[in-house]
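Comment thread on ticket #2218

A.B. wrote:
> Attaching the input chain for the structure job we discussed in standup.
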Amino acid sequence: MSFANAVLANGSSLGAVGLVPCAIGGTKISQWGRGSFLYDQLVRRASAAVQGGGKIRAVLWYQGESDTVNKEDAELYKGRLERFFLDLRSDLQLPSIPIIQVPTDNLGYL
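C.D. wrote:
> Ran it. Output below, let me know if you need it in another format.
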């Protein structure tokens, strides 16, 4: 909610701001790949949000700390994240949707 409130505070002419929560704490980017339960659930929720006339204007991505625990995951993170973003834009049929990535507190190997 703090994100939505900040957006509204900086541009109240936007009207209503809806959020489609899909967060699952402690997950790795590899768990969000196309075809996974988490990915499919995200796409289903986003698709349901637009059926009632809503419009997806951006994606807020706040994930990655779990990928800093082991060096291999950290080294593969960038490529996995880029693939996730490409797949998500494709599957939502929003090829140029902005994705706002929130940095994690623990950058570890990244």
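A.B. wrote:
> Thanks. Noting for the ticket: The helical segments are 2-10, 37-51, 71-91.
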